[in-house]
Amino acid sequence: MDTIPDNKHLYNYTQLLQSATTSRLRFINLHRAQPNHSEELKSKDPAILVTELIESHKQLMREAVIEIINFKSSQVTSIIVDMFCVNMIDVAVEFRIPSYVFFPSSAGFLAIMLQVQVITDEFKQDITEYKDTDKELLIPGFLNQVPAKVLPSGMLDKHGTLDLDVATARRFRESKGIIVNIHGA
């Protein structure tokens, strides 16, 4: 699995990071899954395409975890997934390994995503109905209420990214924790 990938700059960067850290951190470069170039794909929403691309890499991730487990001097103590790769939490669950989400955006945006998911799932409210209104939302972590009209436009568009944002926030809750940027705006 540790062969040089197509992107040599990425490979060199991860090798540099690995050599700069303790031996407890290991980077594994997965081979790229072969995308399906059908006509059907060209008509799909880009967010759905990304989700399907990540999904197509699950088997490669399983193989990498098995390789690490079978390596005598290694132990998998957790799996950290990028905020766009939350479907890989399924692989961690299969191996009974705790997963953490790396969320490089701000803690404020994370709070908004999680609260929009609560509003949608628990309160059964359609957040898109707040578009262009003066409705203010109580968002845990914010000192003041947040005007709904300042939410990311995709969350307020019935055909935007709301469904994906809510599904992603649900997956965040399945992880053991979230590594978040507390200094971002």
TrEMBL record:
Family designation: Belongs to the UDP-glycosyltransferase family.
UniProt xrefs under InterPro entries: UDP-glycosyltransf_plant (IPR050481)
Domain of life (superkingdom): Eukaryota
PANTHER family linked: GLYCOSYLTRANSFERASE (PTHR48048:SF45)
Protein name: UDP-glycosyltransferase 71B6
Species, as recorded: Abeliophyllum distichum
